[in-house]
Amino acid sequence: MKEKGEKKFVWKSLRISFYVMIATFLISLAEPWIPTWLLYTVSAIWYLSLLFTFIMSIVHLTKYKEKIFAIVALVISSLLILLILMTINYLVATSGAV
User: Fold this and answer.
1) Would you call 18 helix, strand, or coil by DSSP?
2) pLDDT tens readout for residues 41-63
């Protein structure tokens, strides 16, 4: 019984964090039309959901048999983390702070 409860938690948390990650990313694309405070809030939620999706997809892959959604979530979150790191690298390189 305990295993089913844990599976439901991991499965639901992975799904929720993935959908929150996608929704906040799409909201942030409307940057010119939303206030700055809301953009910062959405960005913070996006970063947290991105990390949570990455971690929960790894947990899901190591524990359970159904792996398709976890693989998709892991690939998308990994690519977005890589994009963030490349952006930071570009900003540091072009700012003259090196």
Assistant:
1) helix
2) 888 898 999 999 999 999 888 88
**Residue 21 CB neighbours (<10 A):** 24
Contact between residue 54 and residue 22 where contact means Cβ atoms under 8 Å apart: no
Residue for token digits 């990994």? 78
Q: Is 33 helix (H, G, I), strand (E, B) or coil?
A: helix
Q: How confident is the model at residue 65 (pLDDT cuts 50, 70, 90)?
A: confident
Structural domain boundaries of the chain? 2-94
Residue type, 5: G
Burial class for 46, CB neighbours closer than 10 Å (0-12, 13-18, 19+): buried
Q: Is-above-0.90 flag for pTM? A: no
